[in-house]
Design goal:
This protein has ten helices and 19 strands. α3 links the parallel β9 and β10.
Length: 339
């Protein structure tokens, strides 16, 4: 039993990562909760619940309580957070201080919902940090200097594009197009082209294995199973990386356009810094093959995928936690004291 365990939480639409001071990232699980509708009882949380998505009987429903980077179901988010905090920390005498990241475009109401959910899930004090700031810190950017850095953080629900200098955001844009929208685009494309319906999990597997944002020299193929919409029977399909390029064209172009629009609004001195240093791409969605090439071609600026792309935000919340005084200007806290 410990005294106090401070933690940083990357509360994502697709997954939750928990960073504990002195230990690093101790938990990474999908943001999914399985509930029995009849009794309102939680049956599973995280990976176990994700396995149930699209495979549950009528009385069991697998829910993702976050949509587009924000809380869509407050009660379930609170229960999910309580489960993850307890799983990561165990039993402590003092309640933990928590830093949670939020997309850069969230409203005051959405910020309050995150703070309330964390406090009711067992935090003594909750700080919020904007995702691009946390992603930049996690990717090793020194935000204390008067020098421009650009970060694209693409998760499951939102893509945050921001220009940072002196510890804060100068220009930013948050769009609700990211990993989830890629999956939906793949499902729509296969339904339209092949008259076959596949699930979102199958679409995600296709995206990871052969998804691409830019034409490739060598064609790649993957077999996928779905339901023929004409006969209603199961059908096997062979999907190519060219199919994926066509399926994802609209969504990846929207991401590149968002980056372009942020660069257009960037002050010239900072734009010069970014041109010299390049753009950092973080988040699980940013791992889509050749997305860096597409953005680089669209903007004329080199793009580097962060080494720890998936965990950059969680690592950033952890570093902010270790240096709360340095990053205090970037943190938004709940001023109401709770005992």
């Amino acid at each position: 039993m410990g005294l106090r365990t401070d933690m940083g939480i990357d509360l994502g639409t697709a997954s939750v990562l928990v960073y504990i001071k002195g230990k690093g990232i101790v938990l990474q699980e999908p943001s999914v909760v399985a509930i029995d509708r009849n009794t309102n009882k939680i049956l599973a949380v995280g990976e176990e619940a994700r396995m149930m998505l699209g495979r549950t009987p009528g009385n069991i429903v697998a829910i993702r309580p976050l949509r587009d980077g924000v809380i869509s179901d407050f009660d379930i988010t609170e229960k999910m957070l309580k489960y993850f905090i307890k799983k990561a920390v165990g039993t402590t005498i003092l309640k933990p201080r928590v830093i949670v990241c939020v997309p850069s475009g969230v409203t005051e109401v959405e910020k309050r919902a995150v703070i309330d959910a964390c406090n009711q899930a067992g935090a003594s004090k909750t700080y919020l940090i904007e995702e691009p700031v946390a992603a930049a810190i996690g990717a090793g950017v020194d935000l204390s200097k008067p020098s421009g850095s650009m970060v694209i953080d693409m998760g499951g629900g939102t893509t945050d594009v921001a220009v940072l200098s002196l510890g804060g955001i100068v220009v930013s844009k948050s769009i609700k197009i990211a990993g989830d929208k890629f999956d939906e685009a793949i499902v729509r494309y296969i339904r339209k082209k092949y008259n076959v319906m596949i699930g979102l999990r199958s679409a995600e597997e296709l995206k990871i294995k052969i998804g691409t944002a830019f034409p490739e020299e060598e064609e790649r193929f993957v077999e996928v199973r779905g339901r023929n919409l004409v006969t209603g029977l199961p059908k096997n399909l062979t999907i190519s990386s060219t199919d994926m390029l066509e399926a994802l064209e609209e969504t990846v172009t929207a991401v590149a356009d968002a980056v372009h629009s942020v660069l257009e609004r960037t002050p010239p001195e900072l734009a010069a810094d970014i041109s010299e240093k390049g753009i950092i791409l973080t988040g699980g969605g940013g791992l889509l093959s050749n997305l860096d090439k597409l953005i680089s071609k669209r903007t004329g600026v080199s793009v580097v995928v962060a080494e720890e792309a998936i965990s950059s935000v969680a690592l950033g919340t952890g570093k902010a936690l270790d240096n709360i005084d340095i990053y205090s200007s970037s943190l938004l806290s709940d001023e109401r004291k709770r005992y």
